[in-house]
Amino acid sequence: MKEDLKNKISIAEQQFQEWRSLSFDQRQSYLPRFAEVLERYKDEFSRLITTEMNKPISESVSEIEKCIKMARYYSEIDNYNAAEKVETEFRISEIRYEPLGIILGVMPWNFPFWQALRFIIPAILAGNVAVMKHASICFGSGKAIESAMEEAGFPAGVFQNLEIGHKEVEELLAHPAVRAVSLTGSEKAGAQVASTAAIHIKKSVLELGGSDAFIVMQDADLRRAAEEGARARLQNCGQACNAGKRFIVQENIAEDFVPMLVEEFKKFQPGDKFKAETLLSGLAKAEFGDDLEAQYRRAVEAGAEILLPLNRVSDIAFEPGLLKVLPDNPVLKEEVFGPLGFILFAENAAEALEIANDVPYGLSASVWTRDEKLSNYFTENLECGMVSINKMSSSDPRLPFGGIKNSGFGTELSHLALREFVHAKTIVGH
């Protein structure tokens, strides 16, 4: 391990002993100031996000605003890690929740501030310290987060941004002071990091890919479903793990719904990423466009019908595509990251559910129906971590975020995130 990295870990180790000794309220007191810093530099940070990974500036502004909301939420949350008294025959009988130590974050490029901070804030509020390897194209965002935390007054070493590669991540996971890892990224990256963590007996939290279902039943508000469906698929240029990627439509409304969805998709045309009115800009890298085109070709070769062609207008920009596919199309078993959607048809709710669950992933799903009995049927039987009814899937600081199956394990956000990187210590005696 390089000397500068060793020094950073040493700083983190020393700070952990001081940081963990603070009360929950004392740690929490830094968050309102951090929210103020994010507010102060909102325009600057938004431009940085758009510059680094190409999302429309309006979406970058929304990302920073969401981070501010999260910081304020955790600044007011109750201490869910307070010691719990347990009624037993013993005089002393309680559970204490104690921080683990240094937590490593391996973060993606698609939401450079939001996904980093939803790892950092709960981890440090629980009494841990955090180090982070950001995606290489978002090192600027990593630096900006570190600077913002310094300006908010967080003690040096509570959070450190590391500009390192995958080799150093493996070295960190082998270091005895690093006690756990949180990764948001691809299924392949998650498997590699979790494997390394397991070898060294380290806990891991994985937020991985998705092939989320967007189910539209015959009694749904079709116009609203089409509007939100297009946004669900195409926001962030289609580069969201919890995007609605598979539109599963009851077949007796196909003639009404499909033209609406096509119409809404057409509204998302590539434009200047720094103009407020732009809905769609470009992918983060040109190589991602090559991958997307390859998936599109494979889907068509496997029998998909083109409803809207995926047209590449530059190395990173596309006019969005929409394909009608059968459930056995191999591309449905993959995560598709980009402005490309798939429509499938189901005769009834049972078939829609079967199609929705027939993928390796289980992140989230969106269900559109006015029938409460029907919505309950889906919420009880969908194999995923989150279900949204008559709205697109989204994340909220107040609610847990996480998937099952190949979409990963562990929980981010809400009060539950405060317990991801602590251990429950039993205290018992006469």
UniProtKB/TrEMBL annotation:
<dbReference type="InterPro" id="IPR047110">
    <property type="entry name" value="GABD/Sad-like"/>
</dbReference>
<dbReference type="GO" id="GO:0004777">
    <property type="term" value="F:succinate-semialdehyde dehydrogenase (NAD+) activity"/>
</dbReference>
<dbReference type="InterPro" id="IPR016161">
    <property type="entry name" value="Ald_DH/histidinol_DH"/>
</dbReference>
<keyword id="KW-0560">Oxidoreductase</keyword>
<dbReference type="Pfam" id="PF00171">
    <property type="entry name" value="Aldedh"/>
</dbReference>
<dbReference type="InterPro" id="IPR016160">
    <property type="entry name" value="Ald_DH_CS_CYS"/>
</dbReference>
<protein>
    <submittedName>
        <fullName>Succinate-semialdehyde dehydrogenase / glutarate-semialdehyde dehydrogenase</fullName>
    </submittedName>
</protein>
<dbReference type="InterPro" id="IPR016163">
    <property type="entry name" value="Ald_DH_C"/>
</dbReference>
<feature type="domain" description="Aldehyde dehydrogenase">
    <location>
        <begin position="2"/>
        <end position="427"/>
    </location>
</feature>
<dbReference type="InterPro" id="IPR016162">
    <property type="entry name" value="Ald_DH_N"/>
</dbReference>
<dbReference type="InterPro" id="IPR015590">
    <property type="entry name" value="Aldehyde_DH_dom"/>
</dbReference>
